[in-house]
UniProtKB/TrEMBL annotation:
<dbReference type="Pfam" id="PF01381">
    <property type="entry name" value="HTH_3"/>
</dbReference>
<dbReference type="InterPro" id="IPR010982">
    <property type="entry name" value="Lambda_DNA-bd_dom_sf"/>
</dbReference>
<dbReference type="InterPro" id="IPR050807">
    <property type="entry name" value="TransReg_Diox_bact_type"/>
</dbReference>
<protein>
    <submittedName>
        <fullName>Helix-turn-helix transcriptional regulator</fullName>
    </submittedName>
</protein>
<dbReference type="GO" id="GO:0005829">
    <property type="term" value="C:cytosol"/>
</dbReference>
<dbReference type="GO" id="GO:0003700">
    <property type="term" value="F:DNA-binding transcription factor activity"/>
</dbReference>
<feature type="region of interest" description="Disordered">
    <location>
        <begin position="1"/>
        <end position="32"/>
    </location>
</feature>
<feature type="domain" description="HTH cro/C1-type">
    <location>
        <begin position="39"/>
        <end position="93"/>
    </location>
</feature>
<dbReference type="GO" id="GO:0003677">
    <property type="term" value="F:DNA binding"/>
</dbReference>
<feature type="compositionally biased region" description="Basic and acidic residues">
    <location>
        <begin position="13"/>
        <end position="23"/>
    </location>
</feature>
<dbReference type="InterPro" id="IPR001387">
    <property type="entry name" value="Cro/C1-type_HTH"/>
</dbReference>
<keyword id="KW-0238">DNA-binding</keyword>
Length: 150
């Protein structure tokens, strides 16, 4: 363990070091910058400092700074933590980060994220319920019926 670093802080640092560096391809670099800009804009609109958001999201200040500048690509878990700290729907954050595939972008999560009639809390709740149902269905999916031979 690092000298002078508590167990929880050490685990957080190690976890952050395991995240990927910003992706190499131009499209992925653009997505990294876009999600970083999006997070920075949301943070500033909320009147929250970088340090405050880092503390609320459970990540280090330098790591969050790198994410905002597009130098690091946060995991889905970190994006969820940041979304929660900013009170933004997780699917919105995932869409911005390019974590949802084309099917999902055009599907239910995208519709929830884009609905102006819903509050952020409602979007978050609906998204979580939807994902819970999808996971349940995937676990309990019956095997295809086998045709019986005469």
């Amino acid at each position: 363990m690092l000298a002078g670093v508590s167990g929880a802080r050490y685990r957080r640092r190690v976890s952050e070091q395991q995240h990927h560096e910003a992706p190499e391809g131009p499209d992925q670099q653009r997505l990294g910058r876009e999600v970083g800009d999006f997070i920075r804009d949301l943070r500033r609109s909320a009147g929250v400092s970088l340090r405050q958001l880092a503390a609320k999201a459970g990540v280090s200040n330098p790591y969050l700074s790198q994410v905002e500048r597009g130098l690091r690509k946060p995991s889905a878990e970190v994006l969820q933590q940041i979304a929660g700290a900013l009170r933004v729907s997780t699917p919105v954050m995932y869409l911005r980060a390019g974590l949802l595939d084309a099917k999902d972008r055009e599907g239910v999560l995208a519709a929830i994220a884009a609905d102006p009639e819903l509050t952020m809390a409602q979007k978050q709740s609906l998204s979580q319920i939807y994902e819970t149902f999808r996971r349940e269905n995937a676990r309990s999916e019956p095997e295809p019926d086998r045709e019986e031979q005469p």
